[in-house]
Please model this.
Amino acid sequence: MFFKYRVIVRIFAPILCALSASSTLPAEKPKPNRHVVVVVWDGMRPDFVSEKNTPALWKLAHEGVIFRNHHAVYPSATNVNGTALVTGVYPGHSGLIANHEYRPEIDRNRSIDVEIPEVVEKADELSNGKYISVPTIAELVQRAGGRTAIATAKTVGLLLDRHVDLGRAENCVTLFAGESRPLDALTAILAALGPFPSAHLQQDAWTTKALTDFLWKGGVPAFSLLWLGEPDLTQHESAPGAQQALAAIKSCDENLAAVLSALDRQGRKILNDAGFGATTEFADEPRSGDIMVAGNSGTVLFYTEGRDSEVTRHLVEFLQQTDFAGVIFTKEPMQGTFGLEQARSTINTRRMW
Model:
């Protein structure tokens, strides 16, 4: 059985990046229980992805799909490619062509950092809300009635969803380098996690925890994006492949593992909310009808204590009505499921071939 949490990991390097779907596509109404989670490792090179360096990413990649034929837009800067990622258009069409630009209508005396709040607000004011000339993924999801959560350890986050305060984005949050839109979204996070750290690795961990423990507290939104500042920041201070940089890569992998673990917990919460006593650990002696859940990345195993057929039937019926369940196997034959013996015979046949 599969939970439909689609996790997309983007690793940005001078020659590696990816563009999302074009913003010209119509806004499709988000389907319940379908979620897209994008995790960005800023400055990560693909040749450092290995079972040793990045076990969580390695496992996820080999259970999913690896895209090899993709590349950064030019110039390969964080804000430029972040904007390309969430709009699906090249810099010449989005209007954001560099991390630092000279725009005399905003500041006649110096160049500007394109992503800082005062610049973004002034530019939107001058352009009637068209600082970035096309909608971002977050804006399209919100227009279709979906909820979004943006959490970035770098300041790029504001470019990914800067209109969250306009009233059309209820329960949507953009978190960027310890700031937030709406402003009051930060209150509970600061109370629990403290101020945004100054150390790079701690910034990523803080941002990840803010996403999984606070922005996902009421459930995983239709679209989430987590942008880690590592290993880019540490590589600038050392070098790719240096011990500090490898430690930063390990930290990114740990944050990815935390995201995947949080998604597993959210999947179990859906079952509990539906009235099933699903758990990963029995506090007391299990009773007939209790359900043990064992998550295995995209596959989840359910064990019904006492093999209670009535509970199993209700569980199967519930899963069949959801949008997040894929193929369902059951020990005893049930309508709409495959038997485990049938699955075993199929596997054995394939092995023979």
Remarks:
- Residues 13-25, 347-353 have pLDDT under 50 and may be disordered.
- The first helix runs from residue 55 to 63.
